[in-house]
């Protein structure tokens, strides 16, 4: 397939809406970080250096917070100390007030351990390769006008690239756009999926998600049909006032916090790539669950899968 307009273009060209960088100083709390993620509808938060106020040294993402929430909150819950209000452990509130550095990982396997960086004039090929291997975002620096007075950094994400491809279909072969999902992503279909029951307690579901190193789960009813999508991103906006939601069943948690999202977005194996791209971009989602005729999930296609396809 011909991808020169994208792969050989400059990094900044794919960033359709060059948003101001949403970043935070290193003295914010975990709770404040979650509030920022929810307010700006983002999944990661660059953190500035203690010593160089305008230099990003870490990008905390929602999976880092997921790991922190499941480990520290479960420990506090097991300790049995309650805060009185709805039997929420008092330590849970303390955890939200912890410094954001409590979330930062030293695990080299985690994406946030090393910040993937590029410059705005760099070719996109290397970034596409990184995105196709599971990297979700790149910190882009712009030195174009004056190296001594660069423009503010910004984040280029997988979503930006997929949206670019969707809006510029000429960079793909027409035949490819009309090829079915099953033909293009055979490894993504008919494989073991990570699922949780709709009556599973939320905190336990998130703990399992962290153990499996997943960022989302298909939520199933008693018949095995998909009825929802539980994502690490659903933790955004978690505050002291709604901590009790972590004790609720998954279906109650999703209905209470995200009723505006409606039903889960799915596709079928015989849908085309064009349909998949339309769906991903119109719903601003990061994955589409592939279902059979009985609405049972048989696969999942992520933005990583789509970009890996573009790299072939």
UniProtKB/TrEMBL annotation:
Domain spans labelled CBS: 16-75, 189-245, 259-312
InterPro entries the UniProt entry points to:
AMPK_gamma/SDS23_families, CBS_dom, CBS_dom_sf
**Could you tell me the keywords of this UniProt record?**
CBS domain, Repeat
Q: Does the keyword Repeat apply?
A: yes
Checking CDD domains in the record gives: CBS_pair_SF (cd02205)
Q: Please give the SUPFAM superfamilies that the UniProt record associates with this protein.
A: CBS-domain pair
Under the heading Gene3D superfamilies, the entry gives: CBS-domain
Q: Which domain of life is it from?
A: Eukaryota
Name it: CBS domain-containing protein
